[in-house]
UniProtKB/TrEMBL annotation:
Gene Ontology terms: biological process: 'de novo' pyrimidine nucleobase biosynthetic process; 'de novo' UMP biosynthetic process
GO molecular function: dihydroorotate dehydrogenase (quinone) activity
Record lineage: Bacteria, Bacillati, Actinomycetota, Actinomycetes, Micrococcales
Organism of provenance: Microbacterium oxydans
Gene name of this polypeptide: pyrD
Oligomeric form and interacting partners: Monomer.
Protein name: Dihydroorotate dehydrogenase (quinone)
Required co-factors: FMN
Subcellular location: Cell membrane; Membrane
Binding-site residues for FMN, renumbered to this chain: A65, G66, F67, D68, K69, T89, N145, N178, K215, G269, G298, Y319, T320
Major place of residence: membrane
Function: Catalyzes the conversion of dihydroorotate to orotate with quinone as electron acceptor.
Known pathway: Pyrimidine metabolism; UMP biosynthesis via de novo pathway; orotate from (S)-dihydroorotate (quinone route): step 1/1
Length: 340
């Protein structure tokens, strides 16, 4: 039913407008009595619980960063059955992001291209939201994804990340360092081991006891992915998020003119499935068995989630398929996992 509704009606709306409209509905579902009624339909079975990062996740399947940039929909997303919500990317300094339009659907590929540019209200505003969430939704697992403020030079990135970590780590269940978005100039250069090592070290100190992960790009050569994974272990991080959006446009079904019109940005959705599994296996082979690996990319069904768990993922995240499969996607995944 929802896929038909999407193609007939929802796909006609501007993607960013549609996202904000959808988020408004999600926020309503997080308010009583709607939250209670929604949870009655969507709550994950207790057998799906996962112990990781010193936390209990109600389900291995959660929402990736990018969906809830300002921590406004956490209660609603949790009510919809997601095992955790990673908010952000949040920067120390508020920023508008890139000029619009900056979000584009590739319907034939069940994919999205975005060049949002870390649009968010900043670490101070996020901290106030998270503090209220901690009082009202203490059992929801909330990850916080932090990135570099656009106005800060790459040479000063470490101090910028530390500022966000100091403000947000005490309110997060885990903290994720985003050095892999293609939409902030110079950001992906921070993935070079010689640059990344001091950044990880500084943020690790600032994060204190909060579990710390780093989010990598899928476009790196496998040997560089291995090197980053080994560095994360050596620097005392708690996990890796594998992975961000891709700048590749290989193998798309959409018309070339549609893809070209969308322009630059990170591609997410179904086309990432194969590379996502490849990167996951490279990361898993480079880290200890108890090291947390969160798999992201190309996840649409319970079968996709199970495939990643079988390949060594500790947890799995999704985002883009929410657009194509509808609000009960989390429930669909959880019920499918239970059936397996």
């Amino acid at each position: 039913m929802y896929p038909l509704l999407f193609r007939a009606v929802l796909s006609r709306f501007d993607p960013e407008f549609a996202h904000h409209a959808g988020m408004a509905v999600v926020r309503v579902l997080g308010v009583q009595p709607f939250a209670r009624a929604t949870r009655a339909l969507t709550a994950p079975d207790p057998s799906l619980r996962v112990e990781a990062l010193g936390l209990t996740f109600p389900s291995p399947f959660g929402v990736a960063a990018g969906f809830d940039k300002n921590a406004v929909g956490v209660r609603g997303l949790a009510a919809l059955g997601f095992g955790h919500v990673e908010v952000g990317t949040i920067t120390a300094i508020p920023q508008e992001g890139n000029p619009k339009p900056r979000l584009f659907r590739l319907v034939e590929d069940r994919a999205v291209i975005n060049r949002m540019g870390f649009n968010n209200k900043g670490a101070d505003a996020a901290a106030r939201k998270l503090a209220r969430l901690r009082r009202g939704a203490p059992d929801t697992v909330i990850g916080v994804n932090i990135g570099k403020s656009r106005v800060v030079d790459v040479e000063n990135a470490t101090e910028d990340y530390v500022a966000s970590a100091v403000r947000l780590a005490p309110l997060a269940d885990y903290l994720a360092i985003n050095v892999s978005s293609p939409n902030t100039p110079g950001l992906r250069g921070l993935q070079a081991v010689e640059t990344l090592a001091p950044l990880l070290r500084a943020v690790r100190t600032a994060a204190g006891k909060t579990p710390l992960l780093v989010k990598i790009a899928p476009d790196l050569p496998d040997e560089e992915i291995t090197a980053i994974a080994q560095l994360a272990v050596a620097e005392g991080l708690d996990g890796i998020i594998s992975h961000n959006t891709t700048i590749s446009r290989d193998g798309l079904l959409s018309d070339d003119a549609v893809v070209e019109a969308a322009g630059a940005g990170g591609l997410s959705g179904a086309p990432l499935k194969e590379r996502s599994l490849q990167v996951l296996r490279v990361v898993r082979a480079a880290v200890p068995e108890d090291f947390c690996v969160i798999a992201v990319g190309g996840v649409e069904t319970a079968s996709d989630v199970q495939e990643r768990l079988d390949a060594g993922a500790t947890l799995v995240q999704g985002y883009t398929a929410f657009l194509y499969r509808g609000p009960f996607w989390g429930r669909e995944i959880n019920r499918g996992l239970l059936g397996r």
